[in-house]
Design a protein that fits this description.
Largest sheet: 5 strands, parallel
Oligomer: single chain
Number of helices: 8
Radius of gyration: 19 Å
Strand order of the largest sheet: 2-1-3-4-5
Structural class: alpha/beta
């Protein structure tokens, strides 16, 4: 009986250790499009053992995030395994070229990586804007499977014809979440 209690404790300890070591850390950053999916993603990730956090600022272009001390601090404190970037919409509105947007996103990824203790997996969530100057296509070509293209989701938008309505935000976040789980072995503790 005493031996079985010891065995049970060892198995239980190994189970807890495995649960903790399998958890992933996900950080979402971006503009108002990141804001749109941040809370719905938080709800989805709350059902897992993963750590999820976000940082967004409305109206920002990619260059706002370059050399940003608050972002550097967020990366250092969260030490993410995955960084999901939802930027580019405001760059399009400012008439930046797709090449410039992608070049700046590459610089942003390098900046973020310098503040991490481990290799980060980056995922870019392209804008759902219908008039996107083919940015979804350019991002898909450049980032391959690490790009979630949003344009073809045909999300219902607010009067501005740019930002999705709340119900569309939730549906969009669900699609992004499922894409992340399919793309990377992000731990789900319900399986």
């Amino acid at each position: 009986c005493k031996g079985s209690r010891v065995f049970f404790r060892v198995v239980f300890f190994l189970f807890l250790f495995t649960q903790a070591s399998m958890a992933e850390n996900i950080l979402l950053i971006g503009d108002s499009m990141a804001e749109a999916i941040a809370k719905p993603l938080e709800k989805l990730f709350s059902t897992t053992n993963n750590q999820y956090s976000y940082r967004f600022k409305r109206g920002t272009q990619v260059t706002y995030w370059l050399d940003n001390p608050k972002l550097a601090e967020k990366v250092q404190t969260t030490d993410p395994d995955y960084v999901v970037i939802s930027l580019g919409t405001n760059d399009l509105v400012a008439k930046k070229s797709n090449e410039t947007i992608i070049e700046n996103l590459d610089k942003l990824m390098q900046f973020i990586q310098t503040y991490s203790s481990k290799k980060i997996n980056f995922i870019v969530v392209a804008t759902p804007m219908q008039l996107d100057n083919d940015l979804n296509i350019a991002m898909q070509e450049h980032y391959g499977e690490n790009c979630f293209t949003s344009k073809n989701l045909n999300l219902e938008t607010k009067a501005d014809k740019i930002h999705p309505i709340y119900e569309a935000d939730v549906a969009w976040a669900q699609q992004v979440y499922e894409y992340l789980l399919d793309l990377y072995p992000i731990y789900r503790d319900w399986e």
